[in-house]
Design brief:
The chain is of the alpha/beta class. The protein has 2 domains: 157 residues, Rossmann fold (3-Layer(aba) Sandwich); 56 residues, Arc Repressor Mutant, subunit A, CATH 1.10.10.10. 52% of the residues lie in helices and 11% in strands. The protein has 11 helices and 5 strands, in the order αβαβαβαβαβαααααα. The protein has a 5-stranded parallel sheet with strand order 2-1-3-4-5, with helices on both faces. Strand 1, helix 2 and strand 2 form a beta-alpha-beta unit. Helix 4 packs across helix 11, helix 5 packs across helix 7 and helix 8 crosses helix 10. About 5% of the residues have low confidence.
């Protein structure tokens, strides 16, 4: 018995391409290590937003191990607690760097219980495109997701107004000699924030690799940083205009 295989028509291929394009343009990834909270958020967003597709993962590594990661148009990191600890910010910074190295075109957002202007500013300085406090309504959260997915930036206006008010009211801290960096150390720190290896830093700054290592050690010592990822996070205050 002969079996005849029919090749897909041009219309079939076009339709398949449209389906794939829609999946790529509509899938939003939620990263939340809390199963119960994450599942509740996932169910709520799926109910409120029929346009987007939502998927939940406990970590960035878990998501990256799945084939579905290719369809992501936005990644939302969910932070627990009303006050984001330095460890949480360092973890987010690490995940953002890892995601950027893998695919720098995917925008990111953070959802958190904290409404602290200081926390919001610190997180925005990491390069995320939006911050959603969990005090927001579900409708506002959905619209914020759509805005960032379309290429915009979202921050809660009330929180930012408070941040501006606090900034104008507080005196600027004076940098002590122990915290100050030499121009060369600033150049090395700037390169570390980009994830540049020591060998490339040495080439770009026209210095020996051993000299770069000395600068890196001194920078880590002044910042009390344990690794290069912490250096990238802790030097945010020195590069606020970049």
């Amino acid at each position: 018995m002969n079996r005849h295989h029919t090749l897909p028509s041009e219309n079939d291929l076009t339709a398949a391409g449209v389906v794939l394009a829609n999946a790529i343009g509509n899938t939003i990834i939620l990263i939340d290590r809390r199963p119960l909270v994450g599942q509740c958020l996932l169910a709520s967003l799926r109910t409120a937003d029929k346009i987007s597709t939502f998927e939940l993962y406990p970590s960035l590594d878990q998501w990256k191990s799945e084939v579905s990661r290719l369809a992501a148009c936005l990644v939302v990191f969910c932070l627990p607690g009303h006050q984001a600890a330095d460890a949480d910010l360092a973890a987010i910074s690490h995940d953002l760097a890892e995601l950027g190295a893998w695919n720098e075109t995917i925008p990111t957002m953070v959802m958190s219980d904290s409404e602290s202007p200081e926390t919001i500013v610190k997180i925005l300085q990491l390069g995320v495109k939006g911050y959603i406090p969990t005090t927001s309504s579900l409708d506002v959260a959905v619209q914020a997701l759509h805005l960032v997915r379309a290429g915009g930036v979202y921050v809660p206006a009330a929180c930012m107004l408070n941040a501006l008010a606090n900034a104008s009211a507080k005196p600027q801290p004076v940098r002590t000699d122990d915290e100050a960096f030499s121009p060369r150390q600033m150049s090395v720190a700037r390169a570390l924030r980009k994830g540049t290896p020591n060998k490339i830093i040495a080439y770009e700054l026209n210095m020996c690799e051993s000299t770069v290592k000395v600068h890196v050690r001194n920078i880590m010592k002044k910042l009390k940083a344990k690794n290069r990822t912490e250096v990238a996070y802790l030097t945010n205050k020195y590069f606020t205009n970049e």
